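Tutorial, part two.
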Amino acid sequence: MTTPHSARARLVALFLAVASIGVVTQLTVASPAQAAAAQQLTRYPYLTDVVTTFATVNWATDRSQTTGSVKYGVLGSNCATKTVSASKTSISVGSASEYQWKAKLTQLAPNTQYCYRVYLGTTDLLGSDATPQFYSAIPSGSNASYSFAVFGDWGDTNQQGTNPYQAAVDASIGQSGVRFALATGDTAYDSGSQLNYGDLNQTGFRVSSIFGPNFWARAGSKVPLFSVPGNHGANATFFTNWPQTQAVSTSSGSYQMDTYCCANGATSAKSPSAWYAFDEGNARFYVLTAAWSDSNVGNSTPYGMDYAYRWQQNSAEYQWLKNDLQTHPSQLKFAIWHYPLYSDNFTEPSDTFLQGQSSLEGLLTDNGVNMVFNGHAHMYERNVKTSAGLVTYVTGGGGAKPEPISHCQPYDAYGIGWSSTGGSRCGSATKPTAIDQVYHYLRVDVNGQQVTVTPINSLGQSFDQQTYDFAPDTTKPTAPSNLQATAPVGDRVDLQWGASSDANGIAAYDIYRDGTKIDSVAGSTLTYSDNNVTSNTHYGYVVKARDPSNNTSDASNTAEVTTPSVDTEDPGAPGNLQASAPSSGRVDLTWDAATDNVGVTAYDVYRNGGGVPIASVAGNQLSYSDLSVAAATPYSYTVRARDAAGNQSVDSNTAVATTPSAGVLFVDDFESGSLSMWSTVAGLSVSQGVTGGGGQWVARETANGGGSTYAFKTISPTVTDVYARFRFEVLSRTGSVDLMRFRNNSGGSKFSLLVDGATGKLAARNAAGTTTKSNVVINTNQWYTVEVHGKIGSPSTTEVWLDGTLLPELGATGDLGTTNFGQFLLGQTGTTGTYDVAFDDVTVSKNPI
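Running the prediction step on this input gives:
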């Protein structure tokens, strides 16, 4: 951290930073923290809680005096018409002892421009700086047009204490003419301390990244901020620095730290309870908390912990939001919180806990929320409007290090990101060519029911502008078509129909049986199963579509059906379940078909004794690949058969498999009883009855006087660096016997391991045919574990470990040639001699095993 410097030096640094990003010509108003400001001022004035007829002015000073105040008035009249005293809180910003001040301005005329100045005792802290100006809130219900900004994941500085991209974004917001700003969380990296927030004097790595002269001081004196907590900086400092008393009070919200205990095995901890709403003209804004500490998740995840505490339907925040939404039914509505509802970033992915009809997403869409803003992922993403009409954005480019678009999902209409390898994109976006294009904020213009969102990057360039019309929809959807009903069993009727159409999408389909509504499904669903029917009974069904404005279509055609008798007989259990793990991320299952008096319609797959199946496959499918496994982990599986009536068999036998380590190319423990996983087999066989193997089966190379006894596995694509590990036992031999070879993709030998015929020692042979012997004699009827590493290069690398001990003499073999490794061979080809060698637990990998 540097020592405090003069106001003049701060001014010079400010203009140098702005000039370095090419926007200095855009900055025409007086800069904050200029030389004319008083030295006692440590945080430039900034606004919060500008709602109804109120506003809060905040600033910080040294402790040279103990009274503070604000003088204010209507712009163009007298900026010192009224004086209001300020309250102070003692804070420490690093080693500096300071006062944080706030003063509430009351009885403001609506939609009126005001000006103000701040004082410490009798000292005008702004000196000869220009008088800050701001607009009071537009009254609720007014159709006046206005703009606001949205940004997030900000407040970060480098080792030099600068961040030109964030400085440009903040300056642009200050110049934009927006009435207020919303922040999507993660403010003041890394922990949201007062030193991270900082002041006008101190600089350094993650010091003064919010209240430094180049940052929020560029905008905060005229643009009020409403921020949500994130998983960074979720502490009491957040509430000290961003007071929102009036907005919280008038909406009966919450704005404090509370103790949460102890869901999912997590420890008791304090976390923000911050939720409130405010009106601006014809719109209502919902400022919510959806975040949790990454370090206190028990047996869950941060997303899971947030859901457990905040978003289950009986939670305090959910119940408050539900009540407020239902008591404000007819307004345009915006919501903001931290965790992204939909995100194409692997590190900060979609929060699936908040998705769906029964969670936060359903609560918002059921109550007419039009648009959602989230952060957490440091990128820009605009998502396709949901079938229920919800528009969602991710805007996390406010100043923290950008992150990439990791993958593209159908919901991503336009996304850009950045990583060490350059730009990334999804949807209709163009890949960014410079990091400046990813740092950004959103300018949102509200004109009646029409909303235009314009992202603006740190270069001042706009992109992906979108206009939405949220005017009330009075046009009903078209009727569902071709409704069909079938009754495969006596207690179930299955329905399917053709999709309806509507300009704003289909929110739901309502299902009617014999004239009575029995259920609803999502607008993307075109099937339904009615499980509340009885056998030998006639039923008639119709389906109606609803759009996001609850306009209901005409009824579909009527589909009639008579249910058959009920099937109560369970299927037999699937037989001969087997599991194998060909790679670190996959377990393959196979089983024999089960029998049933009517017919098996599905198989349910269970893992590790769980009571809920991890997957279900059709009744004519006798295999399944589990792709949700971790490397180097044991798993157990059972399978149950199920018929159309829902009758379920008892469990199959239990099959177990252990996944190999990450990077594994091939693995075989021979417990399948075959060599089917090998590319070519010539003489090598599998057998039982050899004690000391890893299971019932081992591979055997046997010969009486010569011949080829081997199998090889193709490595595709070929590699320059490879490891192989296996167990072997020499049961008998009369001469040399090969154990394994690394070969190129045409079969040329690059390295082989063998037992020397004359000495019985473990030996190695290189690509040139040179043999090197170790000092270890291989005994008969004893199991050994050997690992071999080969790497093409100049020079080549060869390493051999026997039972975990490196044999350096075999590392001198050298000369692995120049072609890549393309085959791993077990056994030997075309030699004389009599031998019997058993092998087990073969693994080939790109990484150490």
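The longest strand covers residues 707-719. In part three we will examine how such features are distributed along the chain.
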